[in-house]
Specification:
By secondary structure, this protein is an alpha+beta fold. It folds into three domains: 165 residues, Beta-Lactamase (2-Layer Sandwich), CATH 3.30.450; 78 residues, Helix Hairpins, CATH 1.10.287; 153 residues, Histidine kinase-like ATPase, C-terminal domain (Heat Shock Protein 90, 2-Layer Sandwich). It contains ten helices and twelve strands. The protein is rod-shaped, with a radius of gyration of 53 Å. The structure holds adenosine-5'-diphosphate.
Length: 470
Amino acid sequence: MAWFYSIRFRLTATFLAIILAVMIIISLFLYNTLEHYYLNNQRESLEMSGFLASDFLIGHLSGQIDSVRLSTLAENMSRQAQARVIFTNQQGVVVGDSIRVGGLLNQTLDHEDIRKALTGETSSSVSYSETTGYQVMQVSIPVKDENDSIVGIILLSTSLEDLYKTLDDIRSFLLLATVLAMAIVGGGAVALAHRFTGPLEELTTAAKRMAEGKLNQHIEFSSDDEIGRLADQFNIMAKRLDYYTSNLKKFAADVAHEIRTPLTTMSLLTGSLKEHDMEPQQQKEFIEDLDNELERLIALVNDLLTLSRLEKNQIGKESISLNVLMREIISENQYRFARAGLELSGEMPDEELTVQATTLQLRQVIGNLLDNALNYTTPGGTVRVLLYKEDREVVVAVEDTGCGIPEEDIDYIFERFFRVDRARSREAGGTGLGLAIVSEIITKHEGRVWVESEEGVGSRIYFALPLVEE
Ligand code: ADP
């Protein structure tokens, strides 16, 4: 029964039902209108012939009645009107009939139309004739003398055989048109349904494959309509899901790798401590190395925790003056930078630049950028923190005169665990997650990050946040 609920079947059935209903209504209307029109025409034409003859007949019906002459008259009239013509006297007795042999001469007619005509009313009717097997139209017209008294009746009757044959032809034509219309519409509906359901079936199959874990799905369907757009969105979704999943796998592998390095070093160190007899001084050095590796591990775990918290937490924002925050952070870091032989300064406008943000997270962003400036700039260099307004954004740049970043690596430095120089980063205590955290936090604040850098000259790492206008 699945086919019964399919769009293809329901669409086709609905179209066919609609076209059938429309064709039945049109056919009935057309047939009835034509039948009515032809019958009216026939009636009017018979009545016209009768009226034309009635004046001429007054003399023949009111005086001495001559049936032979009247029958000849009826015969002549019959040829012109193409109908059987009968005359009766005022009692309804036939006094002239266009059919001579087997006619109704001298018979008294007792028919509803005759009775009506004898009261002075023109009447007409259609009835079935057993003899011809067709419908027959009869018109009865009273013949009145100058005193308005009825002297007789003219009765005209004609077979409607031709008329109904024409109407039968029309009915056959309408039936054929209905069958043709249903065939065309049915074919169209099947094609249309196929066009709709084809991509939907493809989508279902692709979604099923995704549910089975095969995320790398793509649907080949190009069209600007709703289904085309659905297919496009599906492709984008599948690509993203595939990208995120493989990223997640890569991330998990990267984390394992990052943890394994300090753990291996620690294992070697403890092994040496256990197996070799060492001087207290040498032991102290080994334990210091162990401590460094432990710190590295703790820093890594802390960064990972920060990242995972960022991914799930909705941040509560407040209005923060970046001028105030920058001044605080610069003054807090002065000593650290001076000890590393670096000059740290800030440049900012007098105008207060306010953003909506979480203070702790902004502190983390600027802190990470300053850590990098410190780690990748040799003593004697300078680090400047710039704050300015551009269009409707507040821009912060941390500029250093350090080693710079090679051009081919610039696009990757915000990726998790990416380092230009792994050994140097490790030496400086870097986890490879600092800029990934910066990018994550700024994106969460509807801002953006970018870099300008030249190898051997220095770097400028920027972030921009929407300005809160007073
Ligand atoms: P790390 O913990 O290694 O510093 P980050 O995510 O903070 O990790 O930075 C990624 C990499 O980008 C660094 O390893 C370094 O190679 C490069 N980098 C970041 N900031 C700077 C900078 N100011 N000058 C030169 N290189 C930088």
